[in-house]
Amino acid sequence: MKKRLRGAVRITAEGKEQSRFINAIHTSGLSCYEQYSRGEAFCCEINRSDLDIFLELAESCGMTVSYKEYPSLSLWLSRRKKRFGVIAGLLLLLAAVILFSGTVTEIELRGNDRIADDTLLSALAEAGICPGAYIHDIDFVLCENRLQTEVAGIAWIGMQISGSRIVVEIREETPEPDILRSRIPCNIVARYDSEIVYTSVLDGRLMHKVGDFVPAGTMIVSGVTTDATGHTTLHHAMGSITGIYTDTVSFTADESLRVWNETGNSHKRRRLRIFSLDIPISLPASDSFGSSVLSREEDWLEIGEKRLPIGMMTETENETALTEITLTAAEQEEQTAQKIFLYEKNFLADTEILEREIERSEEDGVLTLTVTYTLRGEIGEQREILMK
Length: 388
Hints:
Elements: H1 2-6, E1 8-14, H2 18-28, E2 32-38, E3 41-47, H3 51-60, E4 64-69, H4 73-79, H5 84-101, E5 106-110, H6 117-126, H7 140-150, E6 154-162, E7 165-172, E8 186-190, E9 194-203, E10 205-206, E11 213-214, E12 219-222, E13 224-226, E14 232-234, E15 238-252, E16 256-274, E17 277-280, E18 292-303, E19 306-326, H8 329-347, E20 352-363, E21 366-378, E22 380-384
Parallel strand pairs: 5-7
Antiparallel strand pairs: 1-3, 1-4, 2-3, 6-7, 8-12, 8-22, 9-11, 9-15, 10-12, 13-14, 15-21, 16-17, 16-19, 18-19, 20-21
């Protein structure tokens, strides 16, 4: 390790005045290591800083010298002492390490499921915790108390330092459960004109049996019961009533669509970001677009696997224009089929489709599909009993 730092040179001196040369070395006080003689050759190791004196002594004694320098930090620096860019880079790197060691470079949020990251980061910035802030100037206890009072939904918050990174642990409040109106007296009535195929009553009095046809609005389960003594009791009618019914829905295609398309014109803006400071490095565009879409690319400076808070932001603004597209017959067919698929997925997911009849019609070149469904599903809905 010492050789790597101070620099060492392996010397081989040959000549007939070997004894005189060795005495001259000892007299001059030069430090020699691993000395040995082999015939007329004298070998040793010396410090790199003593090389010039050693060569002068060898020349005065008529010795022929050959040497080899070991790789070391001093050798690397001596070869690059006139390369000011390398020196400046090392100084900048050293300054960056010193600066970043006491500066917030990243904020990590943990435990927030319902509270948005932007809300927490904004509150942290107001409390003085943001990329670029000095860690030693932050009062973490004060910031924790401030966030807990200013941001709704936080039950507990804790902060810890991990290098130049601030880790914020959050425990959110447990939301209060919704109050179920399960004790209000009500009846169960038919939602559609349907034929009852299954009944299961948990509370209330069944008014119709399986196989009965009930028009929409007919009471199926009553929430009012009377015992043998004439005493009337109000119930919150509960149960499952399954029936077969029909439903007709029309789906009409659009004759034309208005969509935003890119025109091919674009502007690029580049900004240098240092912590939270943005420095524009490109000239502003001479003209502006009426409508556009914006995309952003971020390229951060990294050392190993550590990302530094220094990066280049590139924003590309692409001009868009509203274009009207007339749909062909095939495109209208595809659009209406997509509407039928979405309707069944969103509204009939819990209902069994027994039959589907589709009727096509066209008017002024616009396609309409009328679908008549035969369905099997829940037909009852609760209606509150109104009392004076």
